[in-house]
Structure formats: C-alpha cells, structure tokens
Amino acid sequence: MSQSISKKEINTESIHSNGTVRAFGLRDKLGYMFGDFGNDFFFILVSSFLMVYYTDVYGLSAAFVGILFLIARLWDAVADVTWGRFIDTRTPSKHGKFKPWIFRMSFPLVISGVLMFVHIPGMSNGFYEAYAFVTYILWGTLYSTVNIPYGSMASLITDDPIERTSLSTFRTMGAMSASLIINAVGPLIVFVDNKADADGFLMAAVIFGVLSFACYMACYKLSTERVAMPENNGIKPNLGHTLKALLKNKPLIAILGASLIFMMSTMLIGAVNVYLFKEYFSNTAALSIVGIIQTVTVFIAIPLVKPLVAKFGKKEITTVGMILAAAVYILLFFLPNLSISQFIAVSAIGMFGYAFFNTMIWAFVTDVIDYHELLTGIREDGTVYSFYSFARKIGQALAGGIGGFAITAIGYDATREVQSQNALDGIYALATIVPGAIYLIIFFIIVFFYPLNKQRMNQLKIDLAEKRKNKK
User: Fold this and answer.
1) According to its UniProt record, where is this protein mainly located (predicted)?
2) What pLDDT score does 11 carry?
C-alpha cells in the first residue's frame, strides 16, 4: 500500500494480537459482496415490481407513478450529494469512516422498505397516492444514508487497482445474487394467477427485508477500512472548489454520463419487462427465467474480467461489450414475431455484452476518485462517489418518469383484461429499440470521451504515488 496505516482510521477489530492489521483478502471481498447483496434485495424488488404494484394493486395511473419516480429520484440525487459531503466532514471513528453509517442506518432503511408494500384495502385514490409518495421518498432518502458510505469505502479497503477490481467484481456478484433470487422467486410470490397480489408483495418485502438487514450486518463485520489516505494539510474542502475540480475531471464526467444512461436503461428494462411478459407474451413466469439468465451471463463474464482487463484494459473490454449489447437489442426490435423462448435466447447475448460494464463500473469509479485526487491534491471519496451516485439517481429519475409516461402514451390500460395491439407493439418497442439505442450511446461515450485507457491508468498510479510521497 502506498500509505502508512493510521490505527485511528481503521476498524480496531481488524488488528491482530501482535498489533498488525489484517491484510486485504477474501474476507473483505465477501464483506463487500454482502453490502450490495443487501442493497439490491430491495433495490431490484423496487425497480422490477413497484410500478406494477402501484398500478395494479393501488390502482394508480402510470402517469402519476412516473411523476412520483421522477420527483423521488431527483430528491434522492440531492440527498446523495448532501450525505456524501456530510460524511467527508466527519472525523473517522475507531471502526472507520464509512462503516459505522452502514451499521446505524440499515435497520431504518429496511423498515421503510417494508412500509412501501403495505396495502390498506378500501382507501381512497388520494390516500394511496399520498401514502405511495411519502413511503417511497422516505425509502429513497434512507437508501442514500447506507449506499453512499458503502460505495465510498471501497477506496479505503484497498488502494491497489487489481484488488479494487476484485472488490468491483465481488460487489457485482452480490448484486447479481440478489437479482437472481428476486427475479427467480419474486414473480412466483407477487403474482397469483398472472395478477398482482397485495399479500404476496408484502410477504416478498418482509422476506427480502430480513435478508437485506442480515447482509448489511455481514458487510459491517467482514469489511475493514485499512487505508489511511493522505491528510489534506489543513485544507478544508470547499464545495465551490470541488465542483470546479469535478467539472475538469474528464474521466468522471464521461463515466457519469455513461452510468446515468446505463442506469436509465436498466430501470426501464426492469419496469417494462414486467409488462412485456405479462401482456405481450402472457407469461409472467418467464420473468423468473429471464432473471436467472441475466444473472448467469454476469457470472459467466466475471472469471473473464480479470485476465481480459489485465491484457487489454477496462475501457477496451467495456466498449466491445456495449457494442454487442446494442446490436442485439436493435436486432430484436426488427424481429417482433419471435417466440418467447427465441426472444429470451437472443436477449441473453445482449445481457452478456453489457455484463462487462455492469461488472467493472465500480472499478471505474475508484479510478476517477484517484484522478480527482491527482487534480486537486485533496481526498474526497464520499463527495466524489456521491456525485457519481447523483448521476445514477438522475438516470433512475428519467427512467421512472419516462417509463411511466411511455407506458401511458402507448395506450396501456390496467383495467383492461387484454391490451390493444398498439399498446402491445409499444411495449415491445420499449423493451428492445430503446435499450439498444442507449447501449450504442454508451459505446460512443466510452470510446471518445473516457480517456483512462490501460496505458494512462498505469501512468496515473505512478503519478499519484509520487504526489502522495511529496505530501509527506
């Protein structure tokens, strides 16, 4: 490690009897994996099923849900930056800088998640709208208080680029494991006879809430913040200066843009796929198969990431994956008469393509945090990560808003037993050509605007080590 370790800034539970700190290893990887395992038990449940819960159980219009998602995500984006800035101004405790917040805020987060899926029969439409608004925004706000410290602490678990790539990979494994469970089991719980069931949704929320809390506690127990970053030499981070530096951070701007629209596509697919398989293919059980295949493609990509990145670089491998995904989803748009099995088989190739971006994104984030330090000489992990999360929340806001309005615009009517052909064609277009176009845009962003290729990353590591050495 490039910095000496300060025992004031690490988890004292990681100190061996001889006074040394436990080296980075499998325990940290598993701990970090459990963190996103806990995050995504609820995040994926919400992104995949909350819209259909609101439209089919609460009876809310898709347009109202779109507005709610838009407002909530914009609020969450502000909450992310505020919380990240707050943490960066706090003095680390004996348990670390970020870990204590995961411990403190995870239980309130889980409770708020369960409350979202409580249905009180016989209430007015206005009551359901108000209840959805309050509980959803509360959940999103509390999510920031856990997710920002969780994402930020990767840079304090290790400062080695290869080990950080391992953390990113294990984080993705946690997310995909949660996705596998929710997408495989979730539809079987929340749908009864192909219809949304209020009791099933609440049962799913309670089950996944308990599992989420257990995962957060595992993350807290197993992870160690062991890296002491250089002091800022008495310089207090100034938000204005930070914003100017962020605007000069070209790798950050590029990855923010790519992440924003990637998240928009992920949220959109998650929401639209429910309608695609429920209405277009008339088979909600197939959602479980899609969820399993999506997770399997990631687990196939995971062992390929490290050797491919070592040989070619993160940027290079990601661009190939994104152009493959774009080509597949655009092709699907021009093949509307495929059977459900054929559709799933072809889309699996696209899932494999974007799995590389999904797997390596967190390693990209630690790279741009380091680049920010190189530009400014100040370490602001929480702030930089929160701005990255800000972009993802904007993507979620756009996806939620656009998704709700798009579903309404194509003529979807929750009261109809069978949707019109125009509505069915619109649902299919939303599930194919839209993500295809988004993946193509991401490809161009990474190729032309993200400068940290393999060669420049190697030089960044050298330059940053020299700059930290000179600050001593």
Assistant:
1) membrane
2) 47
